[in-house]
């Protein structure tokens, strides 16, 4: 098993933390993981992306240019990463603000209305968990329970009251994949 | 956990006595993690944000002179500022740990990953005939492990050790197994381990003097001879390298740190296409594994050295292979750009495999 995932969007959308939570979930399932962010001044306001690799074997390069799965949350990221999904791979994109739809036919494409769905949630801060739920429904690479377990481990205890809201967002995200 | 975070926590658990540093991207998490962990309340370790890199390295000098396990960390421009202090540490035969999470230069350059301080780290850096032991981690696990190894070697040989990392290894997260907490050494233990240390003679021993200045040239030459003897011992005993499938390879990749990870993927791509490619990953950049790489050069058809610089380690690889006819080429990106594996593989095919 080897999953090479790129998650890309605007800085502030929770792209890096979504990748981190996914990596933690992989850790809970005893997988090898790498999490490599784009770091630097572009993280505020501009685009942010993170590469997460989950594998049952030793991971070589944390830096890669083609992915089994791409999760893109804005037009720039869609333009940049659509061509970098391996044939047979998966592309998930949020329809919010998209004016040029993806065109590839050799990959599976999921369009999710994650941003719109966020308006039904208590906190818009769980947007990234909603997207993660959608990702895991489309590509079940780790169990939702592992995500929750990872979250619990990663969050300090004073924030544990937020766990139910995150779980709700994950399940809502799952329901967006039809 | 990020490489920088793993390094900071590993240092606390070693029983470190003090950290002195000044923030700079891409290593700021070292100081941030130390501040967040608040080891002064648990082990008694000192964590101090100094006013500059110059202050940091000279505080390290002071701590090291007292036999304490002390360290500093910075990124490329900061390391340039510290070179005087590192030269003084080497001259005063003081054990210390210096961490460089490299970024693109020269000058203030960029905040993105680079390996362009190879010459500075391995060939001296400051003035005078000296070397630091240089360890090059290529994973988050090694960021943690090399803290312990670095200090152990520094104390064993009474010389500064350096961890030469880069923005990729510092910023990325991976699985890591951290060592258990070890207590800081007691004064008695320090007196035993470091009889040269400045911790008060209490009427029990002769006065210790730690200094780098020696106005009598004859004595200074003797000092230098002693340093060189230490360096020869280190060269004989402490060379470390990871060799992957090099025994019967046709082509050899040589890379360290983050580029070694990229090259591991290149090797996978080449293996899928039926080529026999090996990877040599120097772990100690000084002392350099000349012998191990030279041995592979004798039987392989070509070597590519891949680095995040214009060609620095390749000079040592050429020295390693000097008695062979093996062609050696370089692939490098500069200024903070990290190539993807496909790009390096194309270069390997064009310049070595299909040549």
Question: Can you describe this structure?
Answer:
The complex is a heterodimer of chains A (178) and B (355). With 178 residues, chain A is an alpha/beta fold. Chain A is built from six helices and six strands, in the order βαβββαββαααα. Chain B has 355 residues and is α/β, with parallel strands linked by helices. Chain B contains 13 helices and 13 strands. In chain B, the strands form two sheets. A seven-stranded mixed sheet of chain B has the order 2-1-3-4-6-5-11, with helices on both faces. A five-stranded mixed sheet of chain B has the order 8-10-9-12-13, with helices on both faces. In chain B, helix 1 crosses helix 2 and helix 10 crosses helix 13.
Could you say what the CATH topology of chain A is called?
Pyruvate-ferredoxin Oxidoreductase, domain 3
| Main sheet record of chain B | 7 strands, mixed
Largest sheet of chain A: 6 strands, mixed
Oligomer kind: heterodimer
Structural class given helices, strands, pairing of chain B? alpha/beta
Helix content of chain A: 25-40%
Shape summary of chain A:
globular
N-to-C terminal Cα separation of chain B, in Å?
42 Å
What's the order of the H and E elements of chain A? Answer: EHEEEHEEHHHH
Q: Going across the major beta sheet of chain A, what is the strand order?
A: 2-3-1-4-5-6
Number of domains of chain A: 1
Order of helices and strands of chain B: HEHEHEHEHEHEHEHHEEHEEHEHEH
Instruction: State the CATH superfamily name of chain A.
Output: Pyruvate-ferredoxin oxidoreductase, PFOR, domain III
What is the annotated CATH architecture of the largest domain in chain B? Answer: 3-Layer(aba) Sandwich
């Amino acid at each position: 098993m080897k999953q090479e995932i790129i998650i890309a969007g605007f800085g502030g959308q929770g792209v890096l933390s979504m990748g981190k939570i996914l990596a933690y979930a992989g850790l809970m399932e005893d997988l090898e993981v790498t999490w490599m962010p784009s770091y630097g001044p572009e993280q505020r306001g501009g685009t942010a992306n993170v590469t997460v690799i989950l594998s049952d074997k030793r991971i070589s390069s944390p830096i890669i240019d083609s992915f089994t799965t791409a999760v893109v949350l804005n037009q720039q990221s869609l333009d940049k990463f659509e061509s970098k999904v391996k044939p047979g791979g998966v592309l998930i994109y949020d329809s919010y603000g998209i004016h040029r739809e993806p065109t590839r036919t050799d990959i599976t494409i999921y369009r999710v209305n994650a941003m719109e769905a966020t308006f039904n949630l208590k906190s818009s801060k769980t947007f990234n968990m909603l997207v993660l739920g959608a990702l895991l429904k489309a590509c079940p690479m780790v169990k939702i329970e592992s995500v929750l377990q990872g979250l619990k481990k990663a969050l300090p205890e004073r924030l544990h009251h937020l766990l139910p809201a995150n779980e709700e967002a994950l399940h809502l995200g799952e329901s967006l994949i039809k | 956990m990020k490489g920088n975070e793993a390094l900071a926590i590993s240092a606390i658990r070693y029983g470190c006595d003090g950290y002195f540093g000044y923030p700079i991207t891409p290593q700021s998490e070292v100081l941030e993690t130390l501040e967040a962990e608040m080891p002064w309340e648990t082990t008694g370790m000192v964590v101090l944000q100094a006013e500059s890199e110059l202050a940091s390295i000279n505080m390290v000098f002071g701590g090291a002179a007292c036999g304490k396990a002390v360290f500093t960390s910075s990124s490329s421009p900061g390391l340039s500022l510290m070179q005087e202090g590192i030269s003084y540490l080497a001259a005063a035969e003081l054990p210390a740990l210096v961490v460089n999470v490299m970024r693109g230069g020269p000058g203030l350059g960029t905040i993105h990953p680079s390996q362009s301080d190879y010459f500075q780290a391995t060939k001296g850096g400051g003035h005078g005939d000296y070397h630091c032991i240089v360890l090059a981690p290529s994973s988050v696990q090694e960021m943690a492990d090399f803290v312990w190894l670095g200090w152990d070697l520094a104390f064993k040989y009474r010389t500064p050790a350096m961890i030469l990392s880069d923005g990729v290894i510092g910023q990325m997260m991976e699985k890591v197994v951290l060592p258990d907490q070890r207590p800081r050494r007691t004064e008695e233990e320090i007196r035993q381990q470091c009889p040269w240390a400045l911790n008060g003679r209490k009427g029990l021993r002769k006065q210790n003097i730690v200094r780098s200045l020696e106005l009598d040239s004859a004595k200074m030459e003797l000092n230098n001879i002693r340093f060189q003897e230490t360096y020869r011992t280190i060269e004989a005993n402490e060379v470390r390298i990871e060799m992957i499938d090099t025994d019967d390879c046709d082509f050899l990749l040589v890379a360290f740190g983050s580029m070694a990870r990229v090259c591991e993927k290149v090797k996978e791509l080449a293996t899928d296409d039926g080529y026999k490619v090996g990877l040599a990953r120097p772990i100690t950049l000084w002392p350099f594994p000349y012998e191990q790489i030279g041995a592979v050069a004798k039987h392989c058809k070509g070597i590519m050295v891949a680095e995040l610089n214009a060609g620095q380690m390749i000079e040592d690889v050429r020295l390693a292979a000097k008695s062979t006819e093996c062609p050696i080429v370089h692939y490098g990106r500069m200024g903070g750009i990290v190539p993807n594996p496909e790009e390096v593989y194309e270069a390997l095919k064009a310049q070595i495999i299909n040549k």
